[in-house]
Design a protein that fits this description.
CATH class of the largest domain: Alpha Beta
Helix content: 40-55%
CATH superfamily of the largest domain: Response regulator
Number of domains: 2
InterPro entries: ActR_PrrA_rreg, Bact_response_regulator, CheY-like_superfamily, Sig_transdc_resp-reg_receiver
Pfam family, one: Response_reg
Radius of gyration: 18 Å
Protein name: ActR/PrrA/RegA family redox response regulator transcription factor
Strand content: 15-25%
Number of strands: 7
Organism: Rhodobacter calidifons
Keywords: DNA-binding, Phosphoprotein, Transcription, Transcription regulation, Two-component regulatory system
Shape: elongated
Order of helices and strands: EHEHEEEHEHEHHHH
């Protein structure tokens, strides 16, 4: 995969990975390093912005939702300091509105988690405007529903009653859903 990078200069292989899931970001950094990138990691918006402003990389992978704010703030900082930066936004809560917002402020691509290193590499190195292929294993309707419920639950600060009210669902039904494992 080293040959697929555009140039031989060290600066063109720099990669910023911003995600608050420490285990995920470490695994992705190792995988991307094997693919010829020089990864640097951050686990917050503040740390990501700091790296983006002081040492803007050629490529970046940014999680949309971080504990201290939105990954879109990091995307904006990257665009400000390095307009040619290839940026992929990752999220576990894929939605059309957030994908549009990410692309409008300068993201090159938008991937839903779980995305593997091959997906990320392909998105970073893609230079064409062709449509991506349909996913081989799309999420089931049950999984999409479960993800939506989890997102609303988190937005309500894990308040079951408020979440049930927003979802127009009985509180006990919601509690049963939350107690189950995620569908595949």
């Amino acid at each position: 995969m080293l040959n697929s990078l555009t140039t031989d200069s060290q600066a063109d292989r720099t990669l910023l990975l911003v995600d608050d899931d420490e285990a995920f970001v470490k695994r992705l950094a190792r995988a991307m390093e094997k693919r010829g990138f020089l990864p640097e990691t951050a686990q917050s918006v503040a740390a990501g912005r700091g790296i983006a402003l002081s040492r803007p990389p050629a490529c970046a992978v940014v999680d949309l939702r971080l504990e201290d704010g939105s990954g879109l703030d990091v995307v904006e900082a990257l665009r400000e300091r390095r307009p040619d930066c290839r940026i992929v936004v990752l999220t576990g809560y894929g939605a059309i509105a957030t994908a549009v917002a990410a692309v409008k402020i300068g993201a090159t691509d938008y991937l839903a988690k779980p995305a593997d290193a091959d997906d990320v590499t392909n998105a970073l190195l893609s230079r064409t405007n062709t449509r991506p292929p349909a996913p081989k294993n799309p999420m089931s309707a049950d999984r999409v529903r479960w993800e939506h419920i989890q997102r609303i639950y988190e937005l309500c600060d894990c308040n079951v009653s408020e979440t049930a009210r927003r979802l127009t669902m009985h509180r006990r039904t919601l509690q049963r859903i939350l107690a189950k494992r995620s569908p595949v």
